[in-house]
TrEMBL record:
Superkingdom, natural source: Bacteria
Signal peptide: none
Record-annotated Signal transduction histidine kinase internal region domain positions: 158-236
Keywords: Kinase, Membrane, Transferase, Transmembrane, Transmembrane helix
Keyword Membrane in record: yes
Stored Gene3D superfamilies: Histidine kinase-like ATPase, C-terminal domain (3.30.565.10)
InterPro entries named in the record: Bact_2-comp_sensor_kinase (IPR050640), HATPase_C_sf (IPR036890), Sig_transdc_His_kin_internal (IPR010559)
Transmembrane segments annotated in the record for this chain: 7-25, 45-62, 83-103, 109-131
GO molecular function: kinase activity
UniProt name for this protein: Histidine kinase
Length: 348
């Protein structure tokens, strides 16, 4: 194909322009070119083939110049300049080579000869330009779209990493605080807690842009709850329900945990904590409800509001990035209970 474009196509291009000119000229003058001297026809065709190579070479040089100058951009100014260049190339080449030859053959240079000699090659030149540059324009468009998507993806990944970094210090503080108070009372239990903490931390080091089986998330939440139970009051009333149907569904990690951690952090009153994760058709439904202190609801409300400013808004932004248009998060206080609900629609 490369050989054809480089060596065969220019000759065919020149001959196409020549035969079109001859057809129009003969139609007006009544002449038949096959009745002319084949020596003369051969000379004209040789000139046309030569001009075909000159045209294609000149076009490519013109395109290369503007490709280097504008690279992958195709503004209106560039297109106007390229079309003007194509026009001037045709005007110059045709009138230097073809017009004098027409004037010296047959009945001399007539007005319709001059029109045909200049208009027909220009017509084909604009067609060639349209085909050639439309391909280049499409390639540039695809390249720019890919670059834009890459920039957008990099930006979102950076933001996700930043949100993840915001979450880690909070988790680390709570876990280390638990281990600190255990060291004075039960060293063996503290060692076991360190092991649990290491498992949790190892899981958090996974790439947050990659999905995991929801069974891994359930196991992680169970380990986290076991760790938090060590710090919790003996009055804790814990109700857990993880749907057994949930096993191989793919989800992004650490989206459920902030709601559980928030519940443990601000639990009070009856110390009731209810956690439920179930499948609803194509959706995954996560529900967390915890009691809050009865005597100081305004303080509890303030604490929840502060946590929402750091934790829940962080979670909401991650959901917007990872599940755009396919999630619903609701959280608020209902009758001395803080309730959080998260619904995810998984891709089919």
């Amino acid at each position: 194909m490369k050989f054809f474009r480089r060596y065969i196509f220019p000759a065919l291009y020149g001959l196409l322009a020549y035969f079109t000119i001859r057809l129009l000229t003969d139609s007006v003058s009544g002449m038949r070119f096959w009745q002319r001297s084949w020596t003369l026809n051969g000379i004209e065709m040789a000139f046309s083939v030569m001009m075909g190579y000159v045209f294609i070479y000149a076009y490519h040089r013109l395109f290369a110049y503007y490709d280097q100058r504008w690279q992958d951009q195709f503004p209106t100014k560039r297109i106007r300049q390229e079309l003007l260049g194509v026009f001037l190339i045709n005007l110059l080449v045709q009138n230097i080579f073809m017009t004098p030859m027409v004037a010296l053959t047959d009945d001399g240079l007539q007005f319709f000869d001059l029109i045909d000699v200049n208009i027909i090659p220009l017509f084909y030149a604009f067609i060639y330009y349209g085909v050639k540059r439309s391909h280049a324009y499409m390639q540039a468009y695809i390249h720019n779209r890919m670059q834009l998507e890459k920039i957008t993806t990099d930006k979102l990944e950076t933001e996700l990493k930043f949100l993840r970094a915001q979450y880690h210090p909070h988790f680390l503080f709570n876990a280390l605080n638990t281990i600190y108070f255990q060291m004075d009372d039960d060293v063996v239990a503290a060692k076991k807690t360190v092991e649990q903490f290491a498992d949790l931390l190892r899981y958090q080091l996974y790439d947050q842009q990659e999905t995991v089986n929801i069974s891994q998330e359930i196991q992680y939440m169970q380990q986290f709850i076991d760790l938090q139970k060590i710090r919790s009051s003996t009055r804790l009333q814990l109700q857990l329900h993880f749907d057994e149907q949930l096993k191989e569904e793919k989800v992004y990690p650490l989206l459920f945990l902030p709601l559980v951690e928030n519940a443990f952090k601000y639990m009070g009153g009856d110390y009731l904590l209810q956690v439920e994760l179930r499948k609803e058709g194509a959706d995954i439904y996560f529900f967390v409800q915890n009691s809050i202190p009865e005597t100081t609801p305004e303080i509890a409300g303030l604490a929840v509001a502060r946590e929402k400013g750091i934790g829940l808004e962080n979670l909401q932004r991650r959901l917007e990035l990872l599940y755009p248009g396919k999630h619903r998060l609701m959280a608020g206080i209902r009758e001395q209970q803080f309730v959080a609900e998260l619904k995810l629609t998984l891709p089919t």
